[in-house]
Design brief:
Length: about 110
């Protein structure tokens, strides 16, 4: 009886993994409409894009000043940014680390 339960548990797990694999494959496959929209966004330059950015790194206080002045320790400063844009298809796109992707909201 215990063996039969384990079999169905493994079967359910395998079905979930197979379904997840199909969904992941569908998300990775290139969509020609999406690729055309990304090309159009790239060709538009900086027109109509929202860019957010910040800096990360280890900071230290410069001693001897009345008002604290923080500076990054050399070699630890990192600037990061993301860009949002509306594509010609009316969908929202996000640029992370130089790669555009469509944001799925449903």
């Amino acid at each position: 009886m215990s063996t039969r339960r384990n079999f169905f548990n493994v079967l359910g797990l395998a079905a979930g993994v197979a379904t997840g694999g199909v969904v992941a494959a569908a998300a990775v496959l290139p969509d020609s409409e999406k690729q055309k929209a990304i090309k159009d966004i790239q060709d538009a330059g900086y027109n109509g894009k929202l860019t957010l950015g910040t800096e990360y790194g280890v900071q230290h206080h410069t001693p001897g000043q009345i008002f604290p002045h923080y500076q990054f320790v050399p070699g630890t400063r990192k600037n990061v940014q993301v860009t949002l844009s509306v594509g010609p298809d009316g969908k929202l796109y996000l640029n992370q680390n130089g790669k555009w992707a469509r944001i799925v909201t449903e």
